[in-house]
Design goal:
36% helix; alpha+beta; seven-stranded mixed beta sheet; 9 helices
Length: 297
């Protein structure tokens, strides 16, 4: 309560315009910025091919998530979220994505949320992703999120509506229990959908008003596109990456700088082999300990 949450720290010393924007645009669906990045596949394919003889097997999903984790670690202001008109910084870097239990139309989905420090190299991130996929891609798998959803939907529709309304109210007023936040895939730094894995086109996926997701990345099936090489236009393989962000918690210059860094990682994914030595700093946050101390003084 009173602006303090188990999953984030309140940002202080905010520019007046930035502080009032969440009250003008109160919802994420009202605050979405959309952009497209045609990710060249040649650097990704070359990296995957070079690492394979070393026993390191990677795919596009590994590289996309590893690059995003590294970018959030270097540019921590994109790891913020808006709740009830206040701006917070996430306590950790968390990425959510869907795992299909079976490649069939009737197969259920599981949503996985993984937590990272931001200091990991790509091999460590890949191992976490692969372990989560193995645990959730069979029909009998039920993670904590699945179990919570099953409990909520075991009741009649009117009760479900009431329960979800209570959860949203508690979340909005920073009273949602931490164990629910940990199970919720919607309380995350970024959400990724890999439509490439089912040979689908990328889409601009909306941001959820529930939870804390401020960024949504959609990977689409790669295709041949015209590219300029050596002064000539030639066919090149490209993967469309559609990005939707909440514009309210970070200024445009900072966002663009972060996205430029992200695309540089995708252009040279070998940079991700080394762990990050130091996290970027977001100095404009206030934690519960410093708040209590200032009140005592």
């Amino acid at each position: 309560m009173f602006g303090y949450r188990p999953d984030g720290k309140k940002v202080k010393d905010i520019d007046p315009i930035q502080r009032i924007i969440p009250h003008i645009m109160a919802h994420r669906h009202d605050s979405q910025n959309l952009t497209t990045y045609d990710c060249p596949c040649e650097p990704l394919d070359a990296f995957i091919k070079e690492e394979a003889p070393k026993g390191e097997n990677y795919n596009y999903m590994h590289i996309v998530i590893a690059g995003l984790v590294r970018t959030i670690a270097k540019f921590p202001r994109i790891n913020r979220f808006i709740m009830n008109g206040r701006i917070y910084m996430h306590n950790a870097i968390e990425i959510s994505f869907v795992v299909k239990k079976n490649l069939s139309p009737n197969a259920a989905d599981s949503i996985v949320k993984l937590r990272f420090t931001g200091l990991e190299n790509i091999a460590q991130i890949r191992d976490k992703i692969d372990a989560a996929v193995r645990e959730n891609n069979h029909m009998d798998a039920n993670n904590g999120t699945d179990k919570l959803a099953r409990i909520l939907t075991f009741t009649p529709n009117l009760i479900i509506k009431c329960l979800v309304g209570i959860i949203k109210w508690l979340d909005r007023h920073s009273m949602l229990p931490d164990f629910i936040i940990q199970l919720s895939p919607f309380h995350t730094s970024a959400f990724i959908t890999n439509l490439k894995s089912i040979k689908g086109p990328s889409i601009f996926h909306h941001l959820y008003d529930f939870g804390t997701t401020g960024m949504f990345f959609s990977m689409g099936k790669e295709a041949l596109v015209p590219v300029v090489s050596g002064g000539a236009v030639v066919p090149g393989k490209s993967m469309p990456l559609q990005i939707v962000t909440d514009e309210r918690f970070c200024d445009g210059f900072y966002f663009v700088s972060a996205l430029r860094y992200l695309t540089s990682l995708y252009g040279h994914p070998e940079q991700l082999n080394k762990p990050l030595e130091e996290l970027g700093a977001d100095s404009k946050v206030i934690d519960r300990h410093s708040f209590k101390k200032s009140n005592q003084e």
